[in-house]
């Protein structure tokens, strides 16, 4: 169970108390006035609302309640994108707590450092497999390998974590169709391709599908459309799959991490610099002229600065993925993020856009 950070709890409590005060006094007064006009008794309205809001405050402020754990012994998990970042750390973490891990590595056959490090575990429960999520052939080979190496293939595969992904940025008019397609090829079609290939094994285990989306799977942003498009797609796919899998006893969870760029390889300085060059060089001349180099450089500077920030410790992400895999009742969505990112997602997804657009854009 991942503990809620103190700051986030404090924010939640103050927000809830604020709501309770506003709605607890304002709304009952209004409703009581209506009751008075209708000639009905007043007190019950106030009591009801106060009770409802107390329950709401409690719900918001209570740390995650333990919901029972599944037996880890003998269960296997398949993770994509284990060369670096979340995937690499997750492979080690799940191995440590007793799972058999099939770690898909993009660069296994190219002597990738991450793959080598996992192979050096020399453990029966750590199996590294070559995997490009864009290749039907490699995905099918990886699934065959899993089938052949499961302790008991009749029991199936307990979980798949679709983690492999690439970063991308650039304003719409600077981004080529090629880029849109390449990004979704990995982040979206890769997730769907792998999920479809392993579902028969997962269904057999009545297991779990965990898809790594992003806060950018719920909210858009200037300069992030190629990435947002792919991650909104992951959210849509996961929601539909969740409904379909209910009948099979398979649970589908979505991770929406905030900014952990400093802790992984997804947005390195080199990647930002080379992408910025490509965007400017490949933009149509009239777009360059209309937007201007000053505007472009300001946007790139803002990106660089936000990408040098972010959380440096991936523990909250690992804890949430582990909860999705090991809890008897996993959540549909997990949002490991800084409090300010988390609040922003809540406001942008719940307030009318007329209000949230003014707050953030
Ligand atoms: N870090 C964040 O702030 C953040 C926030 C929200 C969501 N996410 C998501 O979290 C996931 C993991 O990213 P990360 O931050 O840990 O970045 P990362 O360190 O770059 O890890 C991504 C992994 O995916 C692999 N990969 C890339 N293309 C692949 C392909 N075609 N087939 C198989 N594997 C491929 C990469 O391999 P190579 O290194 O060999 O290319 C790398 O190991 C991604 O889906 C990302 O979108 C990250
Ligand atoms: C949008 O992206 C920029 C970096 O380009 C970041 O600084 C900002 O916090 C993001 N805003 C939202 C609302 O996600």
What portion of the residues fall into strands of 2 or more residues? 5-15%
User: What Rg do the Cα atoms give?
Assistant: 23 Å
Termini Cα gap: 35 Å
Assign the CATH architecture of the largest domain: 3-Layer(aba) Sandwich
Q: Please trace the helix and strand order, writing H or E for each element.
A: HHEHEHEHEHEHEHHHHEHH
Tally of discrete structural domains: 2
Q: Biggest sheet: strands side by side, in what order?
A: 3-2-1-4-5-6-7
Q: Give a list of the ligands.
A: NADP nicotinamide-adenine-dinucleotide phosphate, 2-acetamido-2-deoxy-beta-D-glucopyranose
**Main CATH class of the largest domain:** Alpha Beta
- So what's the oligomer here? single chain
* CATH 4th-level superfamily of the largest domain: NAD(P)-binding Rossmann-like Domain
Characterization of this structure:
It is a single chain. The chain is globular, with a radius of gyration of 23 Å. It has a 7-stranded parallel sheet, sandwiched between helices. It has 361 residues and is an alpha/beta fold. The chain has 13 helices and 7 strands. The model has no long low-confidence stretch (mean pLDDT 92). It has 2 domains: 4-61, no CATH class; 76-360, NAD(P)-binding Rossmann-like Domain (Rossmann fold, 3-Layer(aba) Sandwich), CATH 3.40.50. Helix 1 packs antiparallel against helix 2, helix 5 packs parallel to helix 6 and helix 6 packs parallel to helix 7 (225-245). Helix content is 57%, strand content 9%. 2-acetamido-2-deoxy-beta-D-glucopyranose binds at residues 219, 221, 223, 302-303, 306, 344, 360.
């Amino acid at each position: 169970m991942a503990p809620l950070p103190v700051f986030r709890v404090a924010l939640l409590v103050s927000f809830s108390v604020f709501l309770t005060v506003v709605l607890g006094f304002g709304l009952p007064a209004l409703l009581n006035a209506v009751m008075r006009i209708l000639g009905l008794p007043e007190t019950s309205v106030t009591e009801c609302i106060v009770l409802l809001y107390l329950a709401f405050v409690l719900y918001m402020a209570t740390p995650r309640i333990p919901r029972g754990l599944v037996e880890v012994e003998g269960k296997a998990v398949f993770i994509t994108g284990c060369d670096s970042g979340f995937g690499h750390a997750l492979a080690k973490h799940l191995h440590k707590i007793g799972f058999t891990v099939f770690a898909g590595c993009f660069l296994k056959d190219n002597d990738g450092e991450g793959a080598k490090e996992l192979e050096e575990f020399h453990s029966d429960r750590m199996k590294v497999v070559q995997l490009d999520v864009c290749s039907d052939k490699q995905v099918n080979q990886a699934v065959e390998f899993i089938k052949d190496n499961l302790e008991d293939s009749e029991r199936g595969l307990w979980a798949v974590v679709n983690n492999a992904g690439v970063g991308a940025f650039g304003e719409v008019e600077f981004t080529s169709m090629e880029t849109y397609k390449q990004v979704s090829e990995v982040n979206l079609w890769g997730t769907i391709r792998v999920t479809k290939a392993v579902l028969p094994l997962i269904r057999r285990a009545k297991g779990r599908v965990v898809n790594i989306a992003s806060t950018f799977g719920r909210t858009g942003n200037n300069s992030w459309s190629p990435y947002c498009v792919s991650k909104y797609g992951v959210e849509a796919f996961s929601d539909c799959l969740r409904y379909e899998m209910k009948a099979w006893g398979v649970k589908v969870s979505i991770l929406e991490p905030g900014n952990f760029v400093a802790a992984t390889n997804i947005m390195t300085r080199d990647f930002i610099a080379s992408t910025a060059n490509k965007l400017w060089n490949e933009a149509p001349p009239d777009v360059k002229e209309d937007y201007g180099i000053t505007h472009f450089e300001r946007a790139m500077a803002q990106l660089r600065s936000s990408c040098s920030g972010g959380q440096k410790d991936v523990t909250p992400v690992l804890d949430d993925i582990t909860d999705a895999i090991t809890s008897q009742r996993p959540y549909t969505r997990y949002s490991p993020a800084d409090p300010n990112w988390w609040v922003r997602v809540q406001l942008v997804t719940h307030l009318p856009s007329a209000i949230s657009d003014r707050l953030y854009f």
